[in-house]
Design the sequence.
């Protein structure tokens, strides 16, 4: 089982991730002079959430050929589910000091908590919703789309429409989820103050663990016989049907798992950045995820994670130095990778390494 | 003796064009049966109907005299025991030759059963046997995309056999093959028949002659003639529609 899940690239990546998971909190909390500044811990935790989101997309796009342009929606739904819990944890410490209602509800003259907020004061309930809500949306959406045999670019377009529709819905104040401001002003999670370094470091460790779990689950799926069937669906869908597989069930399975994974990424992201708002549903966000995966190396899982980290890092640096050129740089990266690195950054690095590696003697 | 496949009064039209028109045909168990006909005679539509890809407008299609094939989908037909080979060789290009056979191998087709499947020794042995039968054992670790056209045809036949079907529907298996490969394919299909029923749709008359079996001539969606190749190719109406005026 170990050999099946951990190949060389997965081993190297997970080892690097493990070293970071230990080194970053130690460097931030336990060493004098704080070689790892606190803002960097939060930033890296955010990158790891993006990396998990990229892995979730690679699972459906890279292996089953389902190009979802709406994966940001699952991420945002997970983020909102966690955000609702964090809002409830604020309790009476809001600006208006209402014992029950979050600030935005007081402001909008709500007199009671809407029904769908019930239960979110319980952390475990919120965690359940983090996977159930995106999973349920993916199930209903996927069931309708895959059963009707919507594939290719048509599927991509309706996933895009799905996230756009959700964005418009979440922008509405009447929805009871904070409208365009979203959910913010979080104080603590499970009693740990979100402003402290130790909580931030804890969130970083959680993000790294979730990424590791996401990679291993994805790897378990893609190396199983089901993973081969998914590749079969990608290569020749009708052939797969004619050897007896009900393709829609297989697509639905992997789509739902992927959406849940994206939801978990969003749930960790919300306390890390301290806000979740409808902008996360924007179609441009979902398209950016596709760029991460393509840039890192589609169908490699590890490559998707690396792609997300590279782009997010470049975004942080470039929007700091010369904000105007960020979108051009993003587009440029995508074009260059598509033209010159057909297997993404990971594929290019592995090819280069293979060239320099002495060829094994082949005994005839 | 019960029939393997029974079509009676089947009609199917697309936008007013009658692709199949009152077609009736019986395939016996273990029979090798060739279907010929000019382009547009309805050969592919007939296969689509049998495998549940297309629903006929009217008529009956029965499997083993008991199962109504008009009510099932493609995966259902495959699970019943109908294997179909496409005209254009369709294999999983980015899987290895071995994996192509492995996922076609008869097994529980459920999602979870597939996820937790572990290959048994018996299955591994079966895969090797099939690869030897289609002469691809030396290429088992190669990507299917790297095979020649003729080898892909053979791989697809191997995948069909891996399903352990009762009936094979084979659409132009000899297309793109060399003469030697064509004859080997004919021998292979002849050896499969008997144990399984085989229906071959073909254009290549040499190939049909090599199969040496019952022939049905389709024309404009219905049966024009039936019999041995020599018998049907001597009939004036067949000569008129098929062999040219």
Sequence:
């Amino acid at each position: 089982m170990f050999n099946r899940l951990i190949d060389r690239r997965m081993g190297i990546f997970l080892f690097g991730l493990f070293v970071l998971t230990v080194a970053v909190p130690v460097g931030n909390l336990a060493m004098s002079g704080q070689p790892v500044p606190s803002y960097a811990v939060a930033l890296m935790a955010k990158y790891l959430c993006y990396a998990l989101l990229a892995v979730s997309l690679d699972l459906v796009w890279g292996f089953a050929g389902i190009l979802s342009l709406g994966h940001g929606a699952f991420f945002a739904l997970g983020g909102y589910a966690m955000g609702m819990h964090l809002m409830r944890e604020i309790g009476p410490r809001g600006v208006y000091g209402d014992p029950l209602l979050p600030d935005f509800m007081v402001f909008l003259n709500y007199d009671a908590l809407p029904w769908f907020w019930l239960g979110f004061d319980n952390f475990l309930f919120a965690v359940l919703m983090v996977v159930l809500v995106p999973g349920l949306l993916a199930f209903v959406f996927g069931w309708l789309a895959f059963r009707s045999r919507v594939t290719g670019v048509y599927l991509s377009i309706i996933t895009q429409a799905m996230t756009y529709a959700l964005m418009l819905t979440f922008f509405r104040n009447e929805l009871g989820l904070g409208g365009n401001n979203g959910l913010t002003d979080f104080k603590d999670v499970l009693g740990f103050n979100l402003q402290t370094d130790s909580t931030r470091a804890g969130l970083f460790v959680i993000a790294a663990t979730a990424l590791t779990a996401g990679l291993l689950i994805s790897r378990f799926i893609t190396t199983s016989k089901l993973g081969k069937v998914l590749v079969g669906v990608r290569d020749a869908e009708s052939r797969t049907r004619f050897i007896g597989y009900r393709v829609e069930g297989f697509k639905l399975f992997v789509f739902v798992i992927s959406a849940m994974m994206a939801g978990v990424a969003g749930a960790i992201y919300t306390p890390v950045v301290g806000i979740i708002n409808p902008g996360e549903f924007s179609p441009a966000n979902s398209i950016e995820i596709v760029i991460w995966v393509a840039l890192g190396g589609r169908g490699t899982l590890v490559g998707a994670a690396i792609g997300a980290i590279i782009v997010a890092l470049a975004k942080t640096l470039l929007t700091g130095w010369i904000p105007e050129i960020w979108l051009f740089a993003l587009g440029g990266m995508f074009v260059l990778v598509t033209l010159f690195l057909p297997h993404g950054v990971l594929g290019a690095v592995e090819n280069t390494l293979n060239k320099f590696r002495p060829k094994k003697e082949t005994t005839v | 003796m019960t029939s393997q496949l029974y079509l009676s009064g089947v009609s199917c039209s697309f936008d007013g064009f009658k692709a199949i028109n009152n077609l009736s045909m019986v395939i016996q168990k273990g029979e090798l049966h060739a279907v010929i006909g000019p382009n547009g005679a309805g050969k592919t539509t007939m296969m689509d109907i049998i495998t549940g890809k297309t629903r006929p407008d009217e008529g009956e299609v029965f499997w083993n005299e008991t199962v109504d094939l008009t009510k099932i989908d493609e995966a259902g037909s495959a699970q019943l025991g109908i294997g179909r080979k496409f005209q254009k060789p369709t294999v999983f290009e980015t899987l290895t030759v071995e994996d192509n056979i492995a996922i076609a191998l008869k097994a529980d087709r459920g999602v979870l059963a597939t996820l937790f499947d572990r290959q048994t020794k018996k299955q591994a042995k079966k895969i090797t046997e099939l690869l030897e039968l289609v002469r691809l054992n030396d290429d088992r670790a190669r990507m299917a995309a790297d095979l020649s056209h003729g080898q892909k045809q053979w791989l697809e036949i191997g995948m069909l056999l891996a399903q352990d079907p009762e009936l094979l529907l084979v659409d132009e298996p000899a297309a793109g093959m060399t003469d030697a490969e064509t004859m080997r394919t004919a021998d292979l299909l002849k050896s499969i028949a008997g144990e399984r029923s085989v229906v071959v749709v073909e254009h290549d008359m040499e190939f049909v002659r090599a199969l040496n079996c019952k022939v049905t001539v389709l024309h404009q969606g219905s049966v024009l003639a039936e019999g041995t190749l020599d018998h049907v190719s001597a009939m004036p109406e067949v000569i008129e529609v098929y062999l040219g005026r």
Q: What stands out?
A: The interface with chain A takes residues 51, 73-75, 77-79, 83-84, 86, 90-95, 99, 102-104, 109-111, 114-117, 119, 159, 163 of chain B (CB under 8 Å). The two ends of chain B are 40 Å apart (CA to CA). The mean pLDDT of chain B is 90.
